[in-house]
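Reading a protein record of the kind used here takes only a little practice. To see the layout at work, look at the sequence and tokens printed below.
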Amino acid sequence: MSHALNLLAQQPQMPPLDSMYWIMLVSRILHILGAIILAGGLFYIRYVVSPVSAPPGTQPVDQFFGGRRAAWAKWVGVATALLLVTGFWNYIQFAKTYDLAKTYHMVLGIKILAAFAVFLLAAFLSGRTNVADSLRQKWSLWINVCLLLALATVVIGSVLRAYPHNRKLDAAEPPKLVAPANQPAA
């Protein structure tokens, strides 16, 4: 029991529940919701909607979306905007709060590149351009690549969330001075 109490005593203190705490919480929730919409939507389209034939009278561009390509294209845009805005905000706040290892930035760069590839592929696959039409010629390949990149982005994001870092000292918080132990006179 005392070991458990020692572990609890070593935990960092609860953050102050000020306005920044609530802004960061909302930003994190919106970032996760954006990822759920985009990755979950891709999964649903790939494994539930596209294996079923399109409804009669559906235009060829909508055949992979069960006639709902335009609605999906709108949600791709919404999710992408949420992820870009909250991702940038979260990174700036995280970098201001913690001393981040150089390798953190490298891993973050890989995550950002994978996320941009997901944004582009999802937008192209749901679009009405010539590029979209050519990508949909190999639908299974590109939707699977998009799903794998989305999964990689989520995994890398989870790694980054648990990445070792040190909290920066606030300018208002002076270093704590510890008196040396008394040494017996020799």
